[in-house]
Design brief:
The protein has 2 helices and 23 strands. The protein is mainly beta. The strands form 4 sheets. Strands 6-7-8-9-23-19-18-13-16 form a 9-stranded antiparallel sheet, with no helix packed on it. Strands 5, 11, 12, 14, 15, 17, 20 and 21 form an 8-stranded antiparallel sheet that branches. A hairpin with a 5-residue loop joins strand 1 and strand 2. It is globular and about 45 Å long. The two termini are 33 Å apart. Bound molecules: 6-O-phosphono-alpha-D-glucopyranose (G6P). 6-O-phosphono-alpha-D-glucopyranose (G6P) binds next to strand 20 and strand 21. 6-O-phosphono-alpha-D-glucopyranose binds next to strand 20 and strand 21. One of its GO terms (molecular function) is carbohydrate binding.
Length: 283
């Protein structure tokens, strides 16, 4: 397959633009293999991007779809969400509709995480969907522990008029705002009305992001990823972030297919593992 072309994005960073035959499109930066845009075939943007995002390493880009790897959150010895989102990837192959990006840790990164691995991220645009696969191969001689997530920021008209529907009532979750204390959902949906930061262990394989005001539903389907993290930082935390615009917390909610509290996965030497998220625009 021919290598897809890159174009220059903010701060001189290279990005790949994918376009489906129907006109849907996506943008993927080599920095972090980070998807920063997914547009429907009508041209409407479906992902949230901060208007103060920083596009250059060593910062992760705020918004879109950061890849948390080889650690989700603070569930391990590394800095929050691991180093892949702060690192440069290389293009392996692709076409107009898909691209595969590759990353191997530097000697410096292996000092913090003493494992050799090969990470491949594939992003594919379809007429009504965006598919992302994370594949990791343990190239070292010891088992490699990891956790991971697709940290997807969905754009919503206003968080007051949006919710995440898990499809099952009364699920329990670990509440990150309360030291991972167990809590229970009263219905099957999460309405974001204050800071919400929760790990659903063994979450349903499909979660819907519903924007009532825009009349839009996106299904988040996950394969090989047992958990889901739901997050909105709310006003105080978001307005304290240097790379988040004022009150922009109202315009997103995160649904993050993950191996979080179910992990870490212990990947044997020479073995590979993969996980996929499929985002589809239902209406
Ligand atoms: O600010 P970041 O490092 O990108 O993390 C953003 C958020 O990611 C996840 O959703 C975690 O559960 C949150 O605790 C964290 O605040």
């Amino acid at each position: 397959m021919a290598s897809p072309k890159t174009v220059e994005g903010p701060e001189g960073q290279q990005k790949v633009v994918l376009t489906s035959s129907s006109g849907a499109s996506a943008e993927v930066f080599l920095h972090g293999a980070h998807v920063t845009s997914w547009k429907s075939n009508k041209g409407e943007e479906l992902l949230f991007m901060s208007n103060k995002a920083i596009y250059a390493p060593p910062k992760a880009i705020r918004g879109g779809i950061p890849i948390c790897f080889p650690q989700f959150g603070v569930l391990g010895p590394l800095g929050q969400h691991g180093f892949a989102r702060n690192s440069m990837f290389e293009i392996v192959e692709g076409s107009g509709e898909s691209v595969t990006l590759s990353f191997r840790p530097s000697a410096e990164q292996q000092k913090q995480f003493p494992h050799q691995f090969h990470l491949l991220i594939t992003v594919q645009i379809g007429s009504d969907r965006l598919t992302q696969t994370l594949q990791v191969q343990n190239e070292g001689s010891e088992p490699m522990p990891f956790t991971t997530a697709f940290h997807t920021y969905f754009l919503v008209s206003d968080v007051d008029n949006a919710h995440a529907d898990l499809g099952t009532s009364g699920l329990t979750y670990q509440d990150n705002t309360k030291g991972r204390a167990e809590s229970k959902l009263s219905g099957s949906s999460v309405k974001f009305q204050q800071e919400f930061d929760a790990i659903f262990v063994g979450a349903p394989d499909t979660i819907k992001v519903v924007d009532e005001k825009a009349g839009r539903t996106i299904s988040v389907r996950k394969e090989g990823l047992p958990d889901a993290v739901l997050w909105n930082p709310w006003a105080d935390k978001a307005n304290g972030m240097a790379d988040m615009g004022h009150d922009q917390y109202r315009n997103f909610l995160c649904v993050e297919p993950a191996v979080a509290a179910s992990g870490p996965i212990q990947l044997e030497s020479g073995k590979s593992w993969s996980g996929t998220q499929i985002l589809s625009l239902d209406s």
